Amino acid sequence: MSDHAPVTDWVHDFDHTDPRWTENPYPIWETLRAAGPVVHTERFLGCYMPTTFDAVKQVAYDTEHFSSRRVVVRDVRPETVPAPPITSDPPEHKPAKQLLLPSFTPDAIKKLEPRVRAICNELIDGFIDERGCDAAARYSRHIPVRTIAHMLGIPESDGDQFIKWIHEILELGIKEQAILMKAVQEMIAYFAGHIERRKKAPTDDLITTLMNARDKDGQPLSDLHVQGTLRLLLIAGIDTTWSAIGSSLWHLARMPADRERLLAEPELLPTAIEEFLRAYAPVTMAREVMKETEIGGCPVKPGNMLLLSFPAANRDPAVFPDADKVVIDRKQNPHAAFGLGIHRCIGSNLARMEMTVAVEEWLRRIPDFRLDPAGKVTWSEGTVRGPRQLPMLFGKA
Amino acid sequence: MAGKLRVRVDQEKCQGHARCRSLAPELFELDSFGNAHEAGDGSVPPGLEDKAWLAQSNCPEMAIEVIEE
Which residue of A has its CA nearest to B55? Predict the structure, then answer.
């Protein structure tokens, strides 16, 4: 087990898996930003982190010097495991992404909204008669699991298995390569069964869409490509949105004025959701430095990884006035929660719809709620940040 | 009194965040990949000027140009 030594010097030795970063990263990012547009740590076999919105944007736009072949910063550099298009660089990236884009447009996603609303209400039915609940364990985590299972055409009841794989790949796998590789192999075996069944009986879902896809030469995608994309859709579609819904409810549980305003002005909800996405952006990506270059005048050398923190970019006061305040009617909000440049999150329209419906239905049925002072809120570590325990009490205080 | 406005989406910059479409559906359309372009010739009908500026200031890729004519 490779436990990390506690950080004593954030600027020269940062570690995004340190418990203090997991608990409350915002003051740490402020310290890093004050030190310069990019900082470096010797941990993770060498890793940079751009600290400002502009520096994050520069890296996201520069696919020549920064590769996506590794998108998670880990203790080790295991063999690359392709999951197109997130791990693809140009020129492979565009065709891999275009296969998927039509299934994720706002119009395509709108068709899923009734199913998501029904899922939310089924979940709320399960706990509304209690005095409170863990909103992460019983609400936010199930919504994206069931939604993405519905889109892929795999059983919603396998959700606990999906969550276990995600925890192993994105959290435990940062420090334990064997856990990462085992989870990937298990997922390959799982999807192989679903692919095999569709060869005999095609279905109307994303697995069949990928199996029927053809490249520019009219050839079917390789098994490696199909399997990689399926893993990506399952992994990227779940704990990200789970985190975003959980953080939104965590905010509203602590801020009765914002809650009351959204109840009085429901038309403000889409604007508030954008602000929750900015302020509590769940996803931090990574790049691998391929060629020497500069970020804001600081040299950046190949062989290092780079932690691409869209959440930190979203807290840059040079772009967002009162960046550390959550302003639910913020008018100018060009946040980077879904990334910038060619790797813009393909599920952004899906995530927004799930967040909006999940918060809307919760507020409609449980207008008064607060954190349970007897419980403890815990946050996931590493690549995706959001509440994993979110104990709530219902009713007025 | 400002003159007429036109909006234009830079196709090289747009990455399909679709913020413009949700803030100003009268002024922007999406293609089958979800990428945005201006509706019609991009002319902003009277009364929708604020929406044009709002869409521009919320585009994460700075892909929207608002032209004062």
Answer: A332
